[in-house]
Amino acid sequence: xxILRTLSVIIFSFILxxxxxxxxxxxxxxxxxxxxGMSYLDKNMTVPAKIYFNYNQYLITDMAxxxxxxxxxxxxxxxxxxxxxxxxxxxxxxxxxxxALGERRANAxxxxxxxxxxxxxxxxxxxxxxxxxxxxxxxxDAWQKNRRSVTTIxxxx
Amino acid sequence: xxxxxxxxxxFLIFFSYILNVNAELKIDITSGYTEPTPIxxxxxxxxxxxxxxxxxxxxKLVIADLNNSGIFxxxxxxxxxxxxxxxxxxxxxxxxRVINAQALIVGSTQINKSGQVxxxxxxxxxxxxxxxxxxxxxxxxxxxRQISHRIADKVYERLTGEIGYFDTRIAYIAESGPxxxxxxxxxxxxxxGANHRFLTDGSNLVITPRFSPSHQELTYxxxxxxxxxxxxxxxxxxxxxxxGDFPGMTFAPRFSPLGDQVIMSLATEGNSDIYSYNLQTNIxxxxxxxxxxxxxxxxxxxxxxxxxxxxxxxxxxxxVMSNKGKKIKRISFGKGHYSTPVWSxxxxxxxxxxxxxxxxxxxxxxxxGKGERVIAKGFxxxxxxxxxxxxxxxxxxxxxxxxxxxxxxxxxxxDLTGFHEREIITPLEASDPAWSSLLN
Lengths: 157, 440
Description:
The complex is a heterodimer of chains A (157) and B (440). Chain A has 157 residues and is α+β, with helices and mostly antiparallel strands. Chain A has four helices and seven strands, in the order αββββαβαβαβ. In chain A, strand 5 (83-88), helix 3 (95-115) and strand 6 form a beta-alpha-beta unit. The radius of gyration of chain A is 17 Å and the shape is globular. Chain B has helices at 49-68, 93-98, 144-160; strands at residues 12-13, 37-41, 72-74, 103-111, 116-125, 130-140, 169-176, 183-190, 197-198, 206-211, 217-222, 229-234, 240-242, 249-255, 261-268, 271-278, 284-286, 294-299, 305-310, 317-322, 329-330, 337-343, 350-356, 359-365, 373-378, 380-386, 392-398, 409-415, 422-424, 429-435. In chain B, the strands form seven sheets. Chain B has a six-stranded mixed sheet with strand order 1-6-5-4-2-3, with helices on one face. Chain A binds chain B through residues 56, 58, 91-97, 99-101, 103-104, 107-108, 111, 126-128, 131-134, 136-139, 156, and chain B through 178-180, 182, 184, 205, 207-208, 221, 225-228, 248-249, 251-252, 265, 267, 269-272, 293, 295-296, 309, 315-316, 337, 339-340, 353, 355, 358, 379-380, 382-383, 398, 400-401, 404-407, 432.
C-alpha cells in the first residue's frame, strides 16, 4: 500500500513537472495545446481556442469577444497559420439541425475574425453538430461546455 | 450485379379463395392497442431429412417475424393437438379451436433434383373453417431466409390488409467508444438482425444513412478528409462517390421517390438552404433561400411536395412546400421545437422529432398539420424512419444518464398507434436507422 502511494506521488509529480516544462500537450490534428480540458493556440497557453454559446444561439457574447480579440492578436503575430474554425452543439437538438447550427456558430466566429482584419483566405469553417462533444455526460455543465467553437490550426493547408 | 440474388419466384395464388359465407378473420391494426391474435403455425412438412431441415429453418423464422410484429402471438407448438401429414389435407379445425388458434398456417417444402426448393403453404381461418389463401414459391435453397420473410409478409398482408415489412433491410450507424471520440460506422442488416455487415471501417465519421427506393444505394454524410459532404454508396460494389461539387457542407440527404434526385441542405456563410441534385444530369436546384436554417427535407411519396425543418419563424418548426420551393406553409404549431420531418410512404402522415421541456418525442401529424400525436418519448429520441407499409416507425433512443454516465444509444421500433415498442437488436450501440423498401 505504502509503495503504491509513493509510486503514485512520484508519477504525479513527474506529470506536473513535464507539464510545466513543455506546456500543454500538442494535438497534431488541430495544432492546439491541450491541458486540463482547455485548448490553446500557443504553447505558453495564453491564447484560449474555445468560446461558448447560449442554447440554440450563435451570437458572440462579450466574454467570447474578449477571447476572440486575443486570438486576433495571435493571428497577427503568426501570419503563416491557416485557421479552421469548428462549430459544435450540445445534444439537445436533432443531428441535422445541429449541423446547421454548428455551421452558424463557426461562421459567426469567422465573420468576427474577418471584421477584425484577418484575411478571409486564412479562415475556414467546419461544423460537427453534436458529433464531437467536449464534455461527456448529459447534464447542464456538460451541455454548456459543448456549445462552443474551437479555433484550430488548419493543419492540412 | 444487384444485391438481391437472382431469384425466380414462381409466385402465384394457386388455390382460388373459397367464397366467404361466415365473417372472415380480419385483424384491425389501425385503431390502437389490440391483444395479439393467437395463431398456429404447424411445422412445415418435408418428406425426407433434407427437406425437413429446410422446413424447420423456415418455420422458425416465420414464427419469429410474426411474433415480433406484436400483432400476432404464435401458440407454443407443444400445445398443438393435431399433427398434420400434408398441407393438402383439410385440418381438423376443432383441434385448433380448442387451443384458441384464430388462424392456422400449414406448409410444405420439396427439394427437386436441381436443388430448387418449392414451398407451398395455406392459411386457414380456424373458426370459419375456410382457406383464406394458398401460395407456392420456388427458389434456390440458399434463399431460405428471404423466402421465410416473404411467407410472413403474405400472412401479415392477408390478415391485416396492410402490406408487410419483413422482407426488408435496415441501414444504421454502429457506434462505439467514448462520446468525445465516438467511432461511427455505416452498417446494414436484415430487418431481423441477420446478415449483419459493416460498410465503412470507422476511420471517417459517418451519419444519417438513407436508402434509395431501389434499396441498392445509400446516401449519407461522411467527414472524409475532415470535409463534411453528402456521399452515395453502392451497397453491393462498395463504390462510394461524393454527390455534386458544392461550395460548403452538404448534409441531411434523402432520395426522391423515383431515386433520380437527392434532396439535401447546403450550408455556407452561416446559412443552410435546401437543394435538389439530379444524379443523372448533375443539375442542382436551390429550393429555399431564407437566411437561416432550412434542413431535413423529405419528399412526399408522389414527389410533388417536400416537408422540411426551418427556424424562419424564430424556432425550429416544420414546413411544407412544393418540389420547386413554392407555397411554403408552416404545419407545426404545438409547444416546443419540431425537427426531422419524414413523409410516410403512404402519404397520410409526417413523422417528426419534437423537443419540449427537456424531453424528446417522436410524433406524427397529417401533412396539413392536423391530428398531432406523440407515439414515443425519452431522454433523447430522434430521427424517425418508416417501415415500407407506413405502419411502424423506427428511431434512435438514448437512455437517461445514470450517475453522470451517458446512457446507451439504441434503435427502437414502434407501431404508428404508439404500441408494441421493441428494441432492434444490434451488435454495438446504434443510431440513425433507415428502413429499406420491400426487397422483392
